[in-house]
Write a structure and sequence with these properties.
Elements (H helix, E strand, L loop, with lengths): L2 E3 L2 E4 L11 E5 L6 H8 L20 H4 L2 E4 L11 H11 L7 H7 L15 H13 L5 E5 L7 H16 L4 E5 L3 H7 L2 E6 L2 E7 H5 L4 E6 L2 H8 L3 E4 L2 E4 L6 H10 L4 E7 L3 H9 L6
Parallel strand pairs: 3-6, 3-7, 4-5, 5-6
Antiparallel strand pairs: 1-2, 7-8, 9-11, 9-12, 10-11
Helix pairs in contact: 4-5
Length: 287
């Protein structure tokens, strides 16, 4: 699938198959094509080349769209409506006559704000309300673009729990875009990485970060530590990288201490999604 805006190619021959169920992350820098991809999924844009199928059908089909909930970027609502009124209005325009607004407001942590006007909501509360609005029709597919923007750490943790619950208990497939790569690593099952409109990587989170960690040690004497480690160690500033498996670390530390090496710090680094993302997008040279 390809999408161009004049001379700008937003998506360049994108070929992607997303499994049903679980949480799927769409990652990339600003301008990488993530929002364009989501808008194509919602039939807000038409592809310039190629085709797109969702749940076995065309997203232009109203029957298919009724099974999709979405929150793209920062949601905006009529300020004079209460949270409950807003969800009721959106549900009824989708054909649901008696929506369970209280249930969904409670699921996103807005139970006590049901009768408050949206005008008084904080940015984080509006994000929660946007997620409730996307869920009120009980969709099979949920598309969330930066869902935790403006939320405090507690709110981010609550949204992480909600998304896992929706995927595991409710069977909702979630497409998630976020710049918080640590959160993506915590919550997503698979990820696709976009760069300049192209798909540069696609894999399960567990597989793409597996075996990428290295143990970094600092000691009172870096030179003595390097001498003791021999070919297993490589200098890194005031510390030393050690290429060993996690299971070997306890024995190594005991051996170093037994040989008179005073270890100041030992930590695993480089195994996260962030480093993998940087490598795939060419943002930095990974060690």
């Amino acid at each position: 699938m390809t999408k161009r805006f004049g001379a700008v190619t937003a998506l360049d021959r994108l070929s992607l198959s997303i499994p049903q169920g679980g949480i799927y992350g769409i990652l990339g820098a600003n301008g990488a094509g993530k929002s364009t991809f989501f808008r194509l999924c919602l039939d807000l844009l038409k592809p310039g080349g190629g085709s797109l199928s969702l749940m076995g059908g065309n997203p232009a089909d109203a029957v298919i769209r009724r099974h999709i909930g979405a929150m793209i970027e920062t949601p905006r609502y009529p300020p004079f409506l209460t949270a409950a009124q807003l969800l009721t209005m959106l549900a009824r325009t989708s054909g649901i006559k008696t929506p369970d607004t209280g249930y969904w407001l409670a699921r996103v942590g807005l139970k006590d704000a049901a009768e408050r006007r949206v005008h008084h909501f904080s940015v984080g509360m509006k994000q929660r309300l946007g997620i409730a609005a996307a869920l009120v029709t009980r969709p099979q597919l949920l598309i969330l673009d930066e869902p935790t923007s403006g939320m405090d750490p507690v709110g981010i943790q609550e949204m992480r729990t909600l998304m896992r619950d929706l995927a595991q208990r409710d069977g909702v497939t979630i497409l998630l875009s976020s710049h918080l790569l640590d959160e993506v690593q915590r919550v997503c099952d698979r990820v696709a990485i976009f760069s300049k409109g192209k798909l540069v990587a696609e894999e399960s989170v567990d597989k793409l970060v597996a075996g990428r960690e290295r143990l970094r040690l600092t000691a009172t004497s870096r030179d003595a530590l390097l001498a003791t480690l021999g070919t297993r160690g490589s200098a890194d500033g005031d510390g030393v990288f050690v290429a060993i498996a996690r299971a070997e670390a306890p024995q190594l530390l005991r051996s170093l201490i037994g040989n008179g090496i005073d270890i100041v710090e030992a930590r695993w680094v480089g195994g996260g999604l962030e480093q993998y993302y940087m490598e795939q997008t060419g943002t930095t040279d990974a060690r």
